[in-house]
Amino acid sequence: LLKQKANSSNGPLSTGQTHTKKKHPVKEGNNQEVPAVSGNGNVVKIKSTNKMDGGCAKDSPPSAKPKPKRVAMDKHVNGTKSDGKDGKEKKKKGKILKEKDDIKHKRRKAEEHEEQQPKEADIWFDDVDPNDIEAAIGPEAAKIARRNLGLETGPSKKSVEQVLVKEKAFEGLTRAVAMDCEMVGVGPKGEDSIVARVSIVNQFGKCIYDKYVKPTEEVTDYRTAVSGIRPENIKTGEDFKTVQKEVADILNGRILVGHALRNDLKVLFLDHPQKKIRDTQKYKPFRQRVKNGRPSLKLLCERLLNVQVQTSEHCSIQDAQAAMRLYTLEKKKWEAAVRNKSNKKNAK
Questions:
Q1: Phi and psi dihedrals of 192, rounded to 5?
Q2: CB-based contact 251:178 (threshold 8 Å)
Q3: Whole-structure pTM value
Q4: Rounded to an integer, what distance in angstroms lies between the CA atom of residue 85 and that of residue 79?
């Protein structure tokens, strides 16, 4: 028995016998040589491929790392790098607040703008040139001035005619009429003038007479660039004597308005009572406003009516309308001045 014990403790194990061997801990992450027993009892060293103690490579495959998923989930929950509900709500609230601030800012700007604008009740004037008002106070005040004078055209300024002619007004003869003539040149150098067209409008700017006149002499200068007259216009025109009589009948007993009327009456060989003539070129208040002793019709319209006339070829209808509009602008004061002048003469 003692012999058998000694053999069993020192020699290799025989077949059918079991032997318990003390296990050594294996460090994780390093390949370890694990002792094993072969069939003939010899000890064989085998490399372990598992990182876990006593495990098998096939039974325990390497597991995936869970940390990145948890980090991503945490970020998603916190709403720092995702478009979750919390993030969307914050963006929506921020947008609404910004819009409210913009609306308040616009309202405040609009109120400040209104405070800076001149109030119509605060602006008063009497026979003041709107352009002078514009230079002193600003364009808004001048705009109100023109509107009160009936001269404001604003956005509806589509044509000169809308300024010079009263829409839907009476189209017949009125107490005052305005006349203008276009002339052509005769004589060796075309320096002398004869009438080629006569136009008359009523107090509202409505045309009541417009005729071309046959020349009584050979025309040497049609002055088309200014007069707008061409050979075909006067070739088929009315006879001068007929036009002269028709015009005289219209003017009889009426106030005659025009610009530099002396020239128009001269070519028609007509006369008219001085007390019934209203010449826009000679009206003193007009001359004072434009600071010109003999202002042109174009200048008066630009400064007092804020319209452009005679920009190219002249039109006798438009020129008559412009003169009438200037007259109606000052009609009350103009007529009062004529009465006062007449009364002073009678008093003497």
A1: -85, 155
A2: no
A3: 0.56
A4: 8
Residues 6+ apart with CB under 8 A from 309: 160, 297, 298, 301, 318, 319, 322
Tell me the CA distances in angstroms from 179 to 94, 149, 163, one per residue in order: 71, 24, 18
Residue 314 backbone phi and psi in degrees, to 5: -75, 155
Terminal alpha carbon distance of the chain = 182
Give the model's pLDDT for residue 285. 95
Question: What are the extents of the domains in the chain?
Answer: 169-347
pLDDT of residue 136: 61
CATH number for the segment(s) 169-347: 3.30.420.10
Q: Which two tokens stand for residue 118?
A: 């001149």
| pLDDT single digits (tens) 216-237 | 999 999 999 999 999 999 999 9
- Say if CB 172 and CB 194 are below 8 A apart: no
E strand or H helix at 71, and its extent? Answer: helix 67-78
Higher pLDDT, 183 or 161: 183
Residue carrying the six token digits 């028995």: 1
